[in-house]
């Protein structure tokens, strides 16, 4: 499932598809009446169920992992589970605009982490694009931020969930250097779902007895924002730097707010639409120049050429 030759146009198209896909996540969660931990668990288990037909093709890669890689896969899955648990819970306490706009802090967290861990630097135009997008996102959510009651708790949960997914993204960036997209996604989703299952058992949440409508929402979450969103972004981590991929969340408040306006009847002012245009422009600047911020090649040691070096791929 890896492309042999990098085509920037193809990657940008897939990136946009991923942004649209993840924007439906908040809508589906708001439609469901199940506990958020149950929603997240079945979302991931059903995703892996849909991926099973490909498992035989990748049977060797699925189990050809070092103990160190298994350990970091577990950590990545734990962070993804924590992200879903906290962020989905925030959607029950605050508006879609407020919850998703806080996610725009993710690329800042990832950029800082990439700099310290991978020595990845952002270009000036990438920083400008990020600033434009974050400023526009802040405008979108400004009218919905409420510093009291359950809304404040919802905002705090979204912030903690953002930190969790940033850590997940940084771990994934390193692991994807040596693990193909399918085994990485399959095991991360399975691990995250299992952590959520243990949480549901501890909380006494029911695993059965849901109406057909709920199962339909679980399936939609597996197909749209997970397969065409998270899976796609994890696949792109091998071809784009982690900060550029994490910038996808800056487009989510725009599309999610529009969807909430149409489908959930949440208010959306004209100035928020204008801010949305600025967000999309900032995201476009970032993804257009995101490939220029990759980690530089290490200098060869004395007597060694670039062809002599091999990637260990472990963290």
Automatic annotation (TrEMBL):
TM spans, by residue?
A: 12-31, 37-58, 70-90, 96-118, 125-145, 151-172, 184-203, 215-237, 244-263, 269-287
Q: Where is this region: Disordered?
A: 294-315
Cellular compartment(s):
Endomembrane system
Query: Membrane topology for this entry?
Result: Multi-pass membrane protein
Keyword Transmembrane belongs to the record: yes
Q: Which Pfam families does the protein's record reference? A: EamA (PF00892)
Keywords from the named record: Membrane, Transmembrane, Transmembrane helix
Residue span, EamA domain: 12-140, 153-287
GO CC annotations?
Answer: membrane
InterPro entries from the entry? AA-Vitamin_Transporters, EamA_dom, EmrE-like
Please state which protein family the record places this protein in: Belongs to the EamA transporter family.
Name of this chain's protein: DMT family transporter
